[in-house]
Amino acid sequence: MGINDAKAATITDLSNTAKSYIGIPYKYGGTDIKTGVDCSAYTQLVFAKLGISLERTSKAQYQQGSSISKDHLQTGDLVFFNTSGDGVSHVGIYIGDSNFISATTSSGVKIDKINDPYYWGSRYIGAKRIANFSENEIGEVKNAEIDFSIYASRGEVALRLAEILHLDTSDTNSSFPDVKPSSKYAGAAGALKKIGVFTGDENGKFNPGSSITRGQLSKVLVEAFKLKQQGNAQEFADVLSTHWASNYVAILSSNKITVGKGDGTFGVNDNVTLVQLDTFIERLTK
């Protein structure tokens, strides 16, 4: 089987989507992020979010794509291991710098070193390239070009929060100048403004069709769910104490709502994916 043309998906898309599942538990045969996934269900879910179909099992996925040597691995390649002594039994996604991410039996979805001398290094079998991902970084993507089948818009966040918080959305006369009463976001945007979750930009606009960063979402979630600091918080390399979102990120971390991206960063300026939004909300509503 050949390589998919995934030019619409960038390396950043792939990495953000894969890392958004970090912390999801492992379950043999599992395919639901709420209860747990196994290794091949995890890779299948990630690629499905990018519009690419994978077979269900690691052995079947090993038959897809084109073989790639370890020296030529690129972000997005599937990497395979023999963990059972009987051929291909584990699959993960290569994310660069000798790191790969997979659903492990011991820790759920996490990042490991492909050459780990204590375990993975000796069990490596090979890699397959299923798709070519473009080099464009998220910062180079114009807002109008963002794929909202992958990323969450501010309007979508409003709809989800209003529903989960059981807010009264019957009043569609929003005070946001860019949200007309006929907009499907009007009731939710207005209700969230009333409780101080969304206040608008410098021009008072809500911008329902714009993306939202992980830093911005941390503020929204903390205020929507009235979260308070709960003990120690994880420190992230990209969220200094002077950063405007540091307190909100710390509160999310201390409440075990986020564990970051698995590489020591939070991704404070990354646009939020729909998968990440689902994961945050699931953890908040347990």
Domains (count) = 2
Main beta sheet: strand number and arrangement?
6 strands, antiparallel
Overall, the morphology is elongated
Radius of gyration: 20 Å
Write a brief structural summary.
The chain has nine helices and ten strands. The chain has 286 residues and is of the alpha+beta class.
Explain how this protein is built.
The protein is an alpha+beta fold. The protein is 28% helix and 16% strand. The protein contains nine helices and ten strands. It has a six-stranded antiparallel sheet with strand order 4-9-5-6-7-8. A two-stranded parallel sheet has the order 1-10. Strands 2-3 form a two-stranded antiparallel ribbon. Helix 5 (154-164) crosses helix 6. It is elongated, with a radius of gyration of 20 Å.
